Amino acid sequence: MSKRKDNHISMIAQISIIFILGVAIIGLLTGLVLHATAVENIKTDFSERSEATAADLEGFIKHFPAHEWMFTYWYENYDRLEIDYDDAYAPGSETAHKCASLAERHPEFMLEYATGAEVRALPPEDQKLYAEIIYSKLLCRLNENIKSDDIDNVFCIATQKPYEKQMVMFSGARGDLLQGPEKAQAYNIGDVINSTEEQKEALHYASQRDPATAFNEDGQYLDYYYDIGSVDGNDLLIGVTRSTAMIESTIYGQTLRLSLLSISFLIILALGCLVMMMSVVVMPLRKLQKTIRFYKDTKDSKTVQKRLRKINSDNEIGQLADDIGELAEEMDAYMAQIESVTSENTRIATELTLASRIQGAMLPDKAHRYPDAKEFNVYGRMYAAKAVGGDYYDHFLIDDDHLCMYVADVSGKGVPAALFMMASSIILKNHIMAGKSPAQVLTDMNADICAKNPEDMFVTVWLGIFDLKTGKLTAANAGHEYPIIKEAGGKFEIVKDRHGLMIGGMEGAVYKEYEIDLKPGAALFMYTDGLTEATDPDNKLFGMDHALEELNRDTGRMAEDYVKQMKEAVKEFERGREPFDDLTMLCVIYWGPEGPSYWNK
Questions:
Q1: Are residues 422 and 309 in the same domain?
Q2: Which residue has the higher pLDDT, 250 or 527?
Q3: What is the pLDDT of residue 543?
Q4: Which pLDDT band, with edges at 50, 70 and 90, does 147 fall under?
Q5: 331 and 272 share a domain?
Q6: Which H or E run includes 486?
Q7: How many CB atoms lie within 10 A of CB 314?
Q8: Which of 421, 414, 425, 420 is nearest to 348 (CA)?
Q9: pLDDT at 247
Q10: Is residue 25 part of a domain?
Q11: Mean pLDDT, the chain, as a whole number?
Q12: In angstroms, how far is CA 328 from the centroid of its own chain?
């Protein structure tokens, strides 16, 4: 390794440069963040206020059954309407007189509940009168919203792609803003407004039922658009406007003051830190550096320790000096030990990898090993908590009409459990292939294992033989988990079968079997306790209720889907926590002699 040049930059100079750059960058970022946060807060607050205003107006309009007729009439006859801008709907107002006139001519006509058909049945002059009454009431409601929600302008426009023009349907503004065509003033019905580029984009999003906000070109007003329907091929949007001039001025003033204050504090802090670092860190480190170079050249650990004792720092640097002195003496021994440990770890890792491959070879080699089977669908997986595990399972055809399947869980973890698993699985399969019943298989297996079990290990087993023609399941349980069965057309439920003692637990144990008649469309799900005892970071167990909920989420899946979905549910539940126990799952779906046509019924 080549040496660095002697004209290197000192640590204190480097730290000073970093502090200066840090102060400048942090000050700039602080100002940008403060300003962006304030602007975003304005938009968020404005959007919330505006949404409430728009939703209220939408509700007010649509509570009239004839609201679609009203918008169409306003759109087509805006130049004929005689609208009275009453501050409030009250007795004696022009709008009240129009209501009385309409009621006098049509006593049976109910203003608030009239449908579009009922309005169209009125004479043209009364249709016009109805449209003006509702329009005036709407303006009153709009003015109330403006006062209560502290906004400048509320309006409704009709527009369509490419949103170049906006036709005003109704509008209202704060009392101190005059009626007219300028921004934030109360527009007249039928006024046409040219859209800015910012408004076009916002109108596009709002027309997709996604309320949007946009600043106008000079940034003095913020607009909000809310879709409420359509009229004559145009999108109907409620718009809300608020001035940002005063708020922006406050934002810039506060941002500048806070930024300058932050920079001042940072400069004072940086100077203090530099002085302290020079005396407490840099000078002792220089002595430590010279000593390390001396050891590099001489390997004289005794002289190194003498020099390191002269570094009188009662902090981490002093502790570091002591540690380096000890390290100098132990370096050679550590290097030799590291080489030995590395070699041993490599050997162990290789052996565990080989053991994992051997164990995997004993499990079913394919997810679907019965390509021609039409009576059933089966899938199983074993997920080991360590490199190797103590769970095992298998499924195979004893003959053309009988499917054998079992799931087992060996006591313990790791390599011992894996070795016991391999031995017990061979014994189990040998007894099955001898043509014995499930109960006799477990009885004979227990006798064999108890005869040669110096470590007193044991294994739980659930074993079942399925008659594919009749649907009869003959099973026996040696201390294993309860099976979960879904009857045809039903849901998955626990079957609390009769348990025998675990295999290897006691000599002379005798096991009994039971039968279950399953109809086409039924399913069986078996598992080890790694499922129900899966634990989240809060030490909460996954539990049987959770497992049943996952299985019954969708009763139309294949066997592979149930197993994989359950594994994903367990993984999500554990939230990154390492599994404590192996997890094995096996699912069989019985379709019957006629094939999968029964499934999903």
A1: no
A2: 527
A3: 95
A4: confident
A5: no
A6: strand 484-486
A7: 7
A8: 414
A9: 61
A10: yes
A11: 81
A12: 51
C-alpha count within 13 angstroms, C-beta hemisphere, residue 212: 16
- Domain span at 271: 10-56+244-285
Residue 530 resides in a domain: yes
CATH code (residue 378): 3.60.40.10
Query: How far is residue 451's CA from residue 368's CA, in Å, rounded to a whole number?
Result: 36
Q: Out of 23-27, 76-80, 366-370, pick the least confident.
A: 366-370
pLDDT of the residue at 360: 55
Residue 183: name the closest of 223, 125, 129 by CA.
223
Written as six digits, the tokens of 33 are: 């963040």
Does the structure show a pLDDT above 60 at 367? no
* Secondary structure (DSSP) of 373-405: --SEEEEEEEE-SSSS-SEEEEEEEEETTEEEE
Q: How many domains does the chain have?
A: 4
Last residue in a domain, options 285, 318, 338: 285
pLDDT band of 348, cuts 50, 70, 90: low
Q: What is the 3-state secondary structure (H, E, C) of 186-228?
A: ECCCCCEEECCHHHHHHHHHHHCCCCEEEECCCCCEEEEEEEE
Residue 253 Cα distances to 20, 38, 259, angstroms = 25, 12, 10
Residues 149 and 116 both lie in one domain: yes
Residue 6 tokens read as 């002697």
Q: Are 576 and 565 found together in one domain?
A: yes
Distance between CA 213 and CA 69 in Å, rounded?
Answer: 29
> pLDDT digit string (tens) for 372-397?
788 999 999 999 887 677 889 999 99
The SS3 assignment for 558 reads coil
CA dihedral defined by 229, 232, 235, 237, rounded to 10 degrees? -70
Considering the domain boundaries, does residue 294 fall inside one? Answer: no
Identify whether the C-beta of residue 413 lies closer than 8 Å to the C-beta of residue 581.
Answer: yes
User: Is the confidence at residue 601, as pLDDT, over 50?
Assistant: no
Cα 403 to Cα 373, 397, 430, 443, 481, distances in angstroms: 11, 4, 16, 20, 20
CA 454 – CA 390 distance, rounded (Å): 18
Residue among 204, 188, 241, 237 at smallest CA distance from 61: 237
Give one DSSP letter per residue of 53-98, joined into a string. Answer: HHHHHHHHHHTSTTHHHHHHHHHHSGGG------SS--TTSHHHHH
